[in-house]
Amino acid sequence: MSADSPSRPSPPGHVLLAPDRFPGALTAARAARHLAAGLRRARPDVPLVELPVADGGEGTVDAVVAAGWRRVEVEVCGPTGRPVTARLALNGRSAVVELAEASGLRRLPGGAPRPLTASSLGTGQLIAHAVRLGARRIVLGLGGGACTDGGAGLVQGLGGRLLDALGKDLPPGGAALRSLHALDLRGLPDMSGIEVVVAGDSAGPLLGRTGAAAVDGPRRGAGRDEVRLLDAGLRRWADLAEAAARRAARDLPGAGTSGGVGFAALTFLGATIEPGPALMLDLLGLAEKARGARLVVTGEGVLDARSLRGSAPIGVARAAARAGAPVIAVAGRRQLTGEQLRKARIQAAYALADIEPDAERRVRRAGPLLEQLTVAIADEWLPARPQSASFQ
Fold this sequence. Notes:
- This protein is an alpha/beta fold.
- It contains 14 helices and 13 strands.
- The strands form three sheets. It has a six-stranded mixed sheet, with helices on both faces. A five-stranded parallel sheet has the order 2-1-11-12-13, sandwiched between helices.
- Helix 7 runs parallel beside helix 8 (about 255-270) and helix 9 (about 275-285) packs across helix 11.
- Keywords: Kinase, Transferase.
- GO terms for molecular function: glycerate kinase activity.
Protein backbone atom coordinates (compact mmCIF):
# COMPACT_ATOMS: atom_id res chain seq x y z
CA MET A 1 0.00 0.00 0.00
CA SER A 2 1.14 3.54 -0.64
CA ALA A 3 2.65 5.21 2.40
CA ASP A 4 0.16 8.03 1.90
CA SER A 5 -2.93 5.83 2.03
CA PRO A 6 -5.03 6.07 5.19
CA SER A 7 -4.82 2.82 7.12
CA ARG A 8 -8.19 1.39 8.13
CA PRO A 9 -8.08 -2.26 9.17
CA SER A 10 -10.77 -4.38 7.52
CA PRO A 11 -12.93 -6.66 9.67
CA PRO A 12 -12.29 -10.41 9.28
CA GLY A 13 -14.35 -12.20 6.64
CA HIS A 14 -15.48 -8.93 5.07
CA VAL A 15 -16.81 -8.27 1.58
CA LEU A 16 -14.89 -5.54 -0.25
CA LEU A 17 -17.00 -3.41 -2.59
CA ALA A 18 -14.66 -1.75 -5.10
CA PRO A 19 -16.60 -0.63 -8.20
CA ASP A 20 -15.62 2.05 -10.70
CA ARG A 21 -18.26 4.47 -11.96
CA PHE A 22 -21.12 3.62 -14.30
CA PRO A 23 -20.83 6.57 -16.73
CA GLY A 24 -24.03 8.53 -17.10
CA ALA A 25 -25.69 6.62 -14.27
CA LEU A 26 -23.64 6.25 -11.07
CA THR A 27 -20.43 7.54 -9.59
CA ALA A 28 -18.18 4.87 -8.14
CA ALA A 29 -19.13 5.97 -4.61
CA ARG A 30 -22.86 5.71 -5.36
CA ALA A 31 -22.38 2.31 -6.99
CA ALA A 32 -20.60 1.10 -3.84
CA ARG A 33 -23.37 2.50 -1.64
CA HIS A 34 -26.09 0.70 -3.64
CA LEU A 35 -24.19 -2.58 -3.52
CA ALA A 36 -23.78 -2.16 0.21
CA ALA A 37 -27.46 -1.35 0.72
CA GLY A 38 -28.54 -4.50 -1.13
CA LEU A 39 -26.09 -6.77 0.63
CA ARG A 40 -26.96 -5.41 4.06
CA ARG A 41 -30.57 -6.41 3.45
CA ALA A 42 -29.63 -9.82 2.06
CA ARG A 43 -26.81 -10.64 4.51
CA PRO A 44 -26.93 -8.27 7.48
CA ASP A 45 -24.33 -10.34 9.36
CA VAL A 46 -21.58 -9.92 6.73
CA PRO A 47 -19.19 -6.97 7.33
CA LEU A 48 -18.80 -4.70 4.32
CA VAL A 49 -15.97 -2.36 3.28
CA GLU A 50 -16.71 0.24 0.60
CA LEU A 51 -13.76 1.32 -1.55
CA PRO A 52 -14.84 3.12 -4.75
CA VAL A 53 -12.08 3.01 -7.35
CA ALA A 54 -10.96 5.05 -10.35
CA ASP A 55 -8.43 4.83 -13.16
CA GLY A 56 -7.14 8.42 -13.13
CA GLY A 57 -10.04 9.82 -15.14
CA GLU A 58 -13.29 11.33 -13.96
CA GLY A 59 -14.06 10.34 -10.38
CA THR A 60 -10.44 10.12 -9.26
CA VAL A 61 -10.75 12.80 -6.58
CA ASP A 62 -14.02 11.30 -5.33
CA ALA A 63 -12.36 7.89 -5.00
CA VAL A 64 -9.47 9.07 -2.82
CA VAL A 65 -11.79 11.24 -0.72
CA ALA A 66 -13.96 8.16 -0.07
CA ALA A 67 -10.75 6.40 1.06
CA GLY A 68 -10.06 9.09 3.65
CA TRP A 69 -8.26 11.92 1.85
CA ARG A 70 -9.32 15.51 2.60
CA ARG A 71 -11.38 17.31 -0.03
CA VAL A 72 -10.44 20.90 -0.87
CA GLU A 73 -12.66 23.11 -3.03
CA VAL A 74 -11.37 26.09 -4.99
CA GLU A 75 -12.84 28.35 -7.68
CA VAL A 76 -10.95 28.10 -10.97
CA CYS A 77 -11.57 28.71 -14.66
CA GLY A 78 -13.55 26.04 -16.48
CA PRO A 79 -12.67 24.95 -20.03
CA THR A 80 -14.51 27.94 -21.54
CA GLY A 81 -13.28 30.49 -19.01
CA ARG A 82 -16.38 30.48 -16.84
CA PRO A 83 -15.61 30.07 -13.13
CA VAL A 84 -16.28 26.63 -11.65
CA THR A 85 -15.85 25.20 -8.18
CA ALA A 86 -13.42 22.32 -8.54
CA ARG A 87 -12.01 19.86 -6.03
CA LEU A 88 -8.63 18.40 -5.26
CA ALA A 89 -7.70 15.93 -2.53
CA LEU A 90 -4.97 16.13 0.11
CA ASN A 91 -3.40 13.55 2.37
CA GLY A 92 -0.38 14.77 4.28
CA ARG A 93 1.93 16.28 1.70
CA SER A 94 0.37 14.41 -1.21
CA ALA A 95 -2.33 15.79 -3.49
CA VAL A 96 -4.55 14.40 -6.21
CA VAL A 97 -5.61 16.75 -9.01
CA GLU A 98 -8.08 15.69 -11.68
CA LEU A 99 -8.24 17.23 -15.18
CA ALA A 100 -11.96 16.50 -15.46
CA GLU A 101 -12.69 18.51 -12.30
CA ALA A 102 -11.65 21.83 -13.81
CA SER A 103 -11.25 21.22 -17.53
CA GLY A 104 -13.57 18.30 -18.20
CA LEU A 105 -16.25 17.64 -20.77
CA ARG A 106 -18.86 17.83 -18.03
CA ARG A 107 -17.81 21.43 -17.40
CA LEU A 108 -18.79 22.58 -20.92
CA PRO A 109 -21.84 24.87 -20.73
CA GLY A 110 -24.78 22.93 -22.10
CA GLY A 111 -22.41 20.12 -23.06
CA ALA A 112 -21.54 21.95 -26.31
CA PRO A 113 -18.03 20.99 -27.50
CA ARG A 114 -15.41 23.69 -27.95
CA PRO A 115 -12.60 21.82 -29.73
CA LEU A 116 -10.68 24.93 -30.81
CA THR A 117 -10.98 27.10 -27.71
CA ALA A 118 -11.38 24.82 -24.67
CA SER A 119 -8.50 25.27 -22.26
CA SER A 120 -6.76 23.37 -19.45
CA LEU A 121 -6.14 26.63 -17.55
CA GLY A 122 -8.21 25.61 -14.51
CA THR A 123 -6.16 22.44 -14.07
CA GLY A 124 -3.01 24.53 -13.83
CA GLN A 125 -4.74 26.67 -11.21
CA LEU A 126 -5.59 23.53 -9.21
CA ILE A 127 -1.96 22.39 -9.33
CA ALA A 128 -0.77 25.83 -8.21
CA HIS A 129 -3.24 25.69 -5.31
CA ALA A 130 -1.96 22.27 -4.27
CA VAL A 131 1.59 23.64 -4.25
CA ARG A 132 0.50 26.58 -2.09
CA LEU A 133 -1.07 24.11 0.34
CA GLY A 134 2.30 22.40 0.74
CA ALA A 135 1.94 19.37 -1.52
CA ARG A 136 5.27 17.77 -2.40
CA ARG A 137 3.83 14.90 -4.42
CA ILE A 138 1.03 15.54 -6.91
CA VAL A 139 -0.84 12.80 -8.72
CA LEU A 140 -2.42 14.30 -11.84
CA GLY A 141 -5.34 12.32 -13.22
CA LEU A 142 -5.71 12.89 -16.95
CA GLY A 143 -9.01 11.77 -18.38
CA GLY A 144 -12.35 13.24 -19.34
CA GLY A 145 -10.80 16.51 -20.54
CA ALA A 146 -12.53 18.90 -22.94
CA CYS A 147 -9.43 20.52 -24.41
CA THR A 148 -6.86 19.83 -27.11
CA ASP A 149 -4.44 22.58 -26.16
CA GLY A 150 -1.30 20.57 -25.42
CA GLY A 151 -1.48 21.71 -21.81
CA ALA A 152 -0.79 25.32 -22.83
CA GLY A 153 -3.65 26.40 -20.60
CA LEU A 154 -2.18 24.41 -17.72
CA VAL A 155 1.01 26.44 -18.05
CA GLN A 156 -1.02 29.67 -18.07
CA GLY A 157 -2.88 28.51 -14.97
CA LEU A 158 0.44 27.98 -13.21
CA GLY A 159 1.41 31.59 -13.95
CA GLY A 160 3.13 31.37 -17.33
CA ARG A 161 2.29 33.71 -20.22
CA LEU A 162 1.86 32.78 -23.89
CA LEU A 163 2.45 35.80 -26.11
CA ASP A 164 1.77 36.65 -29.75
CA ALA A 165 4.05 38.68 -32.01
CA LEU A 166 2.73 41.93 -30.49
CA GLY A 167 3.46 40.77 -26.96
CA LYS A 168 -0.22 40.24 -26.15
CA ASP A 169 -1.55 37.21 -24.28
CA LEU A 170 -2.92 34.51 -26.54
CA PRO A 171 -6.61 33.63 -26.26
CA PRO A 172 -7.33 30.16 -24.84
CA GLY A 173 -7.43 26.90 -26.76
CA GLY A 174 -5.38 24.87 -29.18
CA ALA A 175 -6.24 26.83 -32.31
CA ALA A 176 -4.66 30.04 -31.00
CA LEU A 177 -1.31 28.31 -30.58
CA ARG A 178 -0.55 28.88 -34.28
CA SER A 179 0.05 32.53 -33.34
CA LEU A 180 2.34 31.76 -30.41
CA HIS A 181 5.51 33.86 -30.58
CA ALA A 182 7.09 33.71 -27.12
CA LEU A 183 6.72 32.27 -23.63
CA ASP A 184 7.21 34.19 -20.39
CA LEU A 185 7.70 31.63 -17.64
CA ARG A 186 8.79 33.96 -14.85
CA GLY A 187 5.46 33.52 -13.06
CA LEU A 188 5.71 29.73 -12.72
CA PRO A 189 6.01 28.40 -9.16
CA ASP A 190 9.19 26.71 -8.01
CA MET A 191 8.52 23.01 -8.65
CA SER A 192 11.93 21.78 -7.54
CA GLY A 193 11.50 19.03 -5.00
CA ILE A 194 7.90 18.42 -6.03
CA GLU A 195 7.16 15.05 -7.62
CA VAL A 196 4.43 15.02 -10.25
CA VAL A 197 3.06 11.67 -11.38
CA VAL A 198 0.53 11.46 -14.20
CA ALA A 199 -2.08 8.75 -13.86
CA GLY A 200 -2.34 8.29 -17.59
CA ASP A 201 -2.50 5.70 -20.30
CA SER A 202 -0.38 4.46 -23.19
CA ALA A 203 -1.34 7.37 -25.45
CA GLY A 204 0.95 8.23 -28.31
CA PRO A 205 3.10 11.29 -29.05
CA LEU A 206 1.91 14.88 -29.18
CA LEU A 207 1.87 15.30 -32.96
CA GLY A 208 0.97 13.50 -36.16
CA ARG A 209 -1.45 10.76 -37.15
CA THR A 210 -1.39 9.17 -33.68
CA GLY A 211 -1.04 12.44 -31.81
CA ALA A 212 -3.33 14.49 -29.60
CA ALA A 213 -5.21 16.38 -32.33
CA ALA A 214 -5.78 13.32 -34.52
CA VAL A 215 -6.91 11.06 -31.65
CA ASP A 216 -8.59 13.38 -29.17
CA GLY A 217 -9.70 16.21 -31.47
CA PRO A 218 -12.63 14.28 -33.01
CA ARG A 219 -13.69 13.07 -29.54
CA ARG A 220 -13.96 16.70 -28.54
CA GLY A 221 -15.97 17.69 -31.61
CA ALA A 222 -13.25 18.65 -34.10
CA GLY A 223 -13.80 18.06 -37.82
CA ARG A 224 -11.06 17.14 -40.30
CA ASP A 225 -9.98 20.73 -41.01
CA GLU A 226 -10.08 21.59 -37.32
CA VAL A 227 -7.86 18.60 -36.53
CA ARG A 228 -5.26 19.91 -39.00
CA LEU A 229 -5.50 23.37 -37.46
CA LEU A 230 -5.06 21.97 -33.95
CA ASP A 231 -2.08 19.84 -34.98
CA ALA A 232 -0.41 22.90 -36.51
CA GLY A 233 -0.97 24.83 -33.29
CA LEU A 234 0.41 21.99 -31.19
CA ARG A 235 3.51 21.82 -33.41
CA ARG A 236 4.17 25.51 -32.86
CA TRP A 237 3.58 25.04 -29.12
CA ALA A 238 6.00 22.11 -28.99
CA ASP A 239 8.75 24.07 -30.76
CA LEU A 240 8.64 26.99 -28.35
CA ALA A 241 7.84 25.00 -25.21
CA GLU A 242 10.73 22.58 -25.64
CA ALA A 243 13.13 25.44 -26.37
CA ALA A 244 11.99 27.34 -23.27
CA ALA A 245 12.10 24.32 -20.96
CA ARG A 246 15.18 22.80 -22.58
CA ARG A 247 13.45 19.43 -22.56
CA ALA A 248 12.28 17.39 -25.57
CA ALA A 249 9.04 15.59 -24.80
CA ARG A 250 6.83 15.67 -27.90
CA ASP A 251 7.69 12.12 -28.97
CA LEU A 252 7.60 10.52 -25.53
CA PRO A 253 4.88 7.93 -24.86
CA GLY A 254 2.02 9.70 -23.14
CA ALA A 255 2.81 13.18 -24.50
CA GLY A 256 -0.46 13.05 -26.40
CA THR A 257 -2.50 12.05 -23.36
CA SER A 258 -5.72 14.03 -22.91
CA GLY A 259 -5.35 16.44 -25.79
CA GLY A 260 -1.64 16.86 -25.15
CA VAL A 261 -1.89 17.87 -21.49
CA GLY A 262 0.55 15.03 -20.88
CA PHE A 263 3.11 16.95 -22.96
CA ALA A 264 2.93 20.00 -20.70
CA ALA A 265 3.23 17.83 -17.58
CA LEU A 266 6.32 16.12 -18.98
CA THR A 267 7.89 19.34 -20.26
CA PHE A 268 7.23 21.85 -17.49
CA LEU A 269 6.54 19.73 -14.41
CA GLY A 270 9.14 16.99 -14.99
CA ALA A 271 6.33 14.48 -14.57
CA THR A 272 6.50 10.74 -14.94
CA ILE A 273 3.57 8.83 -16.42
CA GLU A 274 2.27 5.65 -14.82
CA PRO A 275 -0.69 3.45 -15.80
CA GLY A 276 -3.71 5.05 -14.17
CA PRO A 277 -5.47 2.00 -12.69
CA ALA A 278 -2.37 0.56 -10.99
CA LEU A 279 -1.33 3.92 -9.59
CA MET A 280 -4.80 4.67 -8.25
CA LEU A 281 -5.30 1.25 -6.68
CA ASP A 282 -2.00 1.68 -4.88
CA LEU A 283 -3.08 5.10 -3.58
CA LEU A 284 -6.36 3.62 -2.37
CA GLY A 285 -4.65 0.75 -0.57
CA LEU A 286 -6.64 -1.87 -2.50
CA ALA A 287 -4.24 -4.74 -1.83
CA GLU A 288 -4.42 -4.27 1.94
CA LYS A 289 -8.21 -3.86 1.90
CA ALA A 290 -8.57 -7.11 -0.09
CA ARG A 291 -6.45 -9.12 2.34
CA GLY A 292 -8.66 -11.51 4.28
CA ALA A 293 -11.75 -10.64 2.23
CA ARG A 294 -14.43 -13.28 1.87
CA LEU A 295 -15.37 -11.75 -1.49
CA VAL A 296 -14.42 -8.74 -3.63
CA VAL A 297 -17.06 -7.09 -5.82
CA THR A 298 -15.89 -4.74 -8.57
CA GLY A 299 -17.46 -3.44 -11.76
CA GLU A 300 -18.10 -0.60 -14.20
CA GLY A 301 -20.61 0.52 -16.82
CA VAL A 302 -19.52 -1.90 -19.54
CA LEU A 303 -17.27 -4.94 -19.22
CA ASP A 304 -15.86 -5.53 -22.68
CA ALA A 305 -12.63 -6.02 -24.59
CA ARG A 306 -11.55 -2.46 -23.78
CA SER A 307 -11.77 -3.31 -20.08
CA LEU A 308 -9.14 -5.99 -20.58
CA ARG A 309 -6.66 -3.39 -21.81
CA GLY A 310 -6.31 -1.84 -18.37
CA SER A 311 -9.51 -0.77 -16.65
CA ALA A 312 -9.76 -0.25 -12.90
CA PRO A 313 -12.00 -3.34 -12.35
CA ILE A 314 -9.45 -5.58 -14.06
CA GLY A 315 -6.77 -4.08 -11.83
CA VAL A 316 -8.97 -4.76 -8.80
CA ALA A 317 -9.45 -8.38 -9.87
CA ARG A 318 -5.75 -9.02 -10.31
CA ALA A 319 -4.78 -7.34 -7.04
CA ALA A 320 -7.51 -9.20 -5.15
CA ALA A 321 -6.48 -12.50 -6.69
CA ARG A 322 -2.91 -11.91 -5.46
CA ALA A 323 -4.38 -11.35 -2.01
CA GLY A 324 -6.22 -14.67 -2.27
CA ALA A 325 -9.74 -13.23 -2.45
CA PRO A 326 -12.39 -14.38 -4.96
CA VAL A 327 -13.64 -11.65 -7.30
CA ILE A 328 -16.96 -11.08 -9.03
CA ALA A 329 -17.99 -8.15 -11.20
CA VAL A 330 -21.15 -6.15 -11.83
CA ALA A 331 -21.74 -4.07 -14.94
CA GLY A 332 -24.41 -2.31 -16.91
CA ARG A 333 -23.60 -4.59 -19.83
CA ARG A 334 -21.32 -7.62 -20.00
CA GLN A 335 -19.58 -8.44 -23.29
CA LEU A 336 -16.85 -10.79 -22.10
CA THR A 337 -16.89 -14.56 -22.38
CA GLY A 338 -16.48 -16.83 -19.41
CA GLU A 339 -12.96 -17.64 -20.56
CA GLN A 340 -12.05 -13.95 -20.81
CA LEU A 341 -13.40 -13.35 -17.33
CA ARG A 342 -11.41 -16.24 -15.90
CA LYS A 343 -8.20 -14.98 -17.51
CA ALA A 344 -8.90 -11.59 -15.91
CA ARG A 345 -9.21 -13.39 -12.52
CA ILE A 346 -12.97 -12.72 -12.30
CA GLN A 347 -15.03 -15.72 -11.21
CA ALA A 348 -18.42 -14.42 -12.38
CA ALA A 349 -20.05 -11.28 -13.78
CA TYR A 350 -23.58 -9.93 -13.35
CA ALA A 351 -25.16 -7.36 -15.66
CA LEU A 352 -28.01 -4.92 -15.18
CA ALA A 353 -28.98 -5.70 -18.78
CA ASP A 354 -29.87 -9.22 -17.69
CA ILE A 355 -32.69 -7.92 -15.51
CA GLU A 356 -33.54 -4.69 -17.39
CA PRO A 357 -33.17 -4.85 -21.19
CA ASP A 358 -34.35 -1.26 -21.79
CA ALA A 359 -31.22 0.95 -21.90
CA GLU A 360 -32.97 4.15 -20.78
CA ARG A 361 -34.59 2.54 -17.76
CA ARG A 362 -31.32 0.76 -17.00
CA VAL A 363 -29.53 4.12 -16.68
CA ARG A 364 -32.37 5.76 -14.78
CA ARG A 365 -32.76 2.90 -12.30
CA ALA A 366 -29.13 1.78 -12.11
CA GLY A 367 -28.98 2.07 -8.31
CA PRO A 368 -32.06 -0.03 -7.48
CA LEU A 369 -31.06 -2.54 -10.16
CA LEU A 370 -27.64 -2.95 -8.56
CA GLU A 371 -29.35 -3.62 -5.26
CA GLN A 372 -31.53 -6.21 -6.99
CA LEU A 373 -28.43 -7.96 -8.35
CA THR A 374 -27.06 -8.35 -4.84
CA VAL A 375 -29.76 -10.94 -4.11
CA ALA A 376 -28.21 -13.32 -6.66
CA ILE A 377 -24.72 -12.40 -5.49
CA ALA A 378 -25.61 -13.19 -1.88
CA ASP A 379 -27.31 -16.48 -2.78
CA GLU A 380 -24.39 -17.71 -4.90
CA TRP A 381 -21.37 -16.31 -3.06
CA LEU A 382 -22.47 -15.58 0.50
CA PRO A 383 -24.55 -18.55 1.64
CA ALA A 384 -26.55 -17.81 4.75
CA ARG A 385 -25.31 -19.47 7.89
CA PRO A 386 -27.77 -22.11 9.14
CA GLN A 387 -29.58 -21.00 12.26
CA SER A 388 -29.23 -23.17 15.32
CA ALA A 389 -32.32 -25.22 16.06
CA SER A 390 -34.05 -24.59 19.37
CA PHE A 391 -36.13 -27.08 21.29
CA GLN A 392 -38.85 -26.37 23.75
